[in-house]
Specification:
By secondary structure, the chain is mainly alpha-helical. The protein contains 5 helices and no strands.
């Protein structure tokens, strides 16, 4: 693959040495563009603002044609939404039994301290 790329680069360099003016003109075209004047900018801005307004209005309206409410507006308008999550939390069918004796004698628990795995540069 690099052979093909080198071959292409060699061809371009050969053509550039034969036609330097053409290459310079093509290279300069890259940096040329539409000159911006006050008039061209104002026409572009009016067109851009119209596109943005159309896009904004299309996203603000839901499928049925009404304006959609934001999340904050929904919670301010409907107070039952505040308690809806709490009702889901209270619907637990079974209570979880915790055996507290498992946590009483944690001092007797033998945990391996692998100090050699720690960072040797760490100084507490």
């Amino acid at each position: 693959m690099t052979d093909y790329k080198e071959e292409q680069n060699n061809e371009v360099e050969a053509l550039e040495s034969i036609y330097p003016d053409e290459f310079q003109r093509e290279y300069d075209k890259v940096f040329e563009g539409t000159r911006v004047t006050v008039e061209t900018f104002m026409t572009w801005k009016a067109k851009f603002d119209a596109e943005m307004a159309a896009l904004k209005s299309s996203t603000d309206i839901s499928i049925d044609g009404k304006k959609r409410l934001t999340g904050k507006e929904l919670f301010l308008a409907d107070k039952t939404l505040n308690e809806s999550d709490l009702s889901f939390l209270g619907e637990g069918d079974t209570a979880v039994a915790v055996d507290e004796t498992l946590f009483e004698n944690l001092d007797d628990l033998e945990l391996d301290d692998d100090d050699e795995d720690d960072d040797p540069d760490y100084k507490p």
